[in-house]
């Protein structure tokens, strides 16, 4: 009897140690997301996607949010994300500083910046912004800030920037009369409440570029990177997955490489990039 009880005790001890061993063996990756939207909206868009990726890969993904774009930039430039969704110029910087590589992007349409103004105001074209206040999400938001500021400079428009921290806040500043215009992109403008959209008009569109990619850090094993790439593409091939990715927006997920973003180096946007800028 004592022998049986002792064996039972050993079995229980073995089981107790086996449970945390499974947990320790779990592969966990940090997934950063550029803060285009306010935190609740960002979580609502990305949490279902990461849950689906977990089901398809067997990995665990921890979404790492940043309250503002500068904090997001500091994190990826330090290599703290295993995977990250970022704007095209961020992709160039991330590749240069940490050798991040694009794995998927939207293949449905190109990205461009827009300038919006109040329908009830006096601003109807870019030159009307001379001496006015223009709201931007942050200095380094690609379409919404880098490309729009480059265009304002090209047209020799002198303006006062207002750093609103998010796309939503930039649009609200115009809707509430606190700014004469705002830089943004079509995807985030369409995400705003209809009451806000109804107050705004697009006065300019910039040139086009490949849209935001999901990037992978080189510390992630190649097999795992390919598993995540495949999971995104397979997810996009289902109605449910496509609907989730459309909220990003990534309406047609396609495989990506850094070749897709080399042209951005020729745009001269480094002049407008602010390292750690608020």
Structure description:
This protein is of the alpha/beta class and 278 residues long. Helix content is 42%, strand content 19%. The chain has helices at residues 2-25, 39-57, 69-77, 88-98, 142-154, 167-175, 186-190, 194-197, 222-236, 239-246, and strands spanning 28-33, 60-64, 83-85, 101-106, 113-118, 133-136, 160-163, 181-185, 200-205, 213-216, 253-255. The strands form two sheets. The protein has a six-stranded mixed sheet with strand order 2-1-3-10-4-11, sandwiched between helices. The protein is globular and about 60 Å long.
SSE topology sketch:
Layout: H1 2-25, E1 28-33, H2 39-57, E2 60-64, H3 69-77, E3 83-85, H4 88-98, E4 101-106, E5 113-118, E6 133-136, H5 142-154, E7 160-163, H6 167-175, E8 181-185, H7 186-190, H8 194-197, E9 200-205, E10 213-216, H9 222-236, H10 239-246, E11 253-255
Parallel strand pairs: 1-2, 1-3, 6-7, 6-8
Antiparallel strand pairs: 3-10, 4-10, 4-11, 5-8, 5-9
């Amino acid at each position: 009897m004592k022998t049986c009880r002792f064996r039972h005790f050993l079995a229980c001890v073995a089981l107790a140690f086996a449970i945390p061993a499974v947990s320790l063996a779990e592969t966990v990756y940090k997934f950063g997301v550029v803060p285009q939207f306010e935190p609740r909206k960002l979580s609502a868009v990305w949490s279902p996607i990461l849950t689906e990726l977990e089901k398809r890969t067997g990995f665990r993904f921890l979404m790492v949010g940043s309250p503002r774009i500068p904090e997001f930039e500091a994190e990826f430039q330090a290599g703290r994300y295993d995977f990250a969704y970022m704007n095209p110029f961020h992709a160039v910087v991330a590749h240069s500083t940490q050798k991040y590589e694009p794995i998927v992007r939207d293949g449905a349409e190109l990205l461009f910046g827009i300038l919006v103004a109040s329908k009830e105001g006096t601003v109807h074209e870019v030159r009307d912004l001379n001496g006015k206040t223009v709201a931007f999400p942050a200095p380094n938001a690609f379409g919404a800030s880098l490309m729009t500021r480059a265009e304002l400079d090209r047209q020799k428009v002198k303006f006062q920037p207002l750093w609103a921290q998010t796309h939503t806040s930039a649009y609200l500043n115009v809707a509430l009369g606190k700014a004469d215009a705002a830089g943004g992109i079509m995807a985030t403008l369409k995400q705003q409440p209809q009451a806000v959209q109804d107050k705004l008009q697009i006065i300019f569109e910039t040139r086009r570029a490949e849209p935001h990619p999901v990037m992978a850090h080189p510390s992630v094993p190649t097999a795992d990177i390919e598993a995540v790439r495949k999971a995104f593409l397979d997810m996009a091939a289902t109605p449910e997955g496509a609907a989730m990715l459309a909220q990003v927006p990534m309406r047609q997920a396609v495989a990506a490489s850094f070749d897709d973003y080399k042209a951005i180096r020729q745009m001269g946007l480094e002049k407008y990039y602010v390292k750690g800028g608020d």
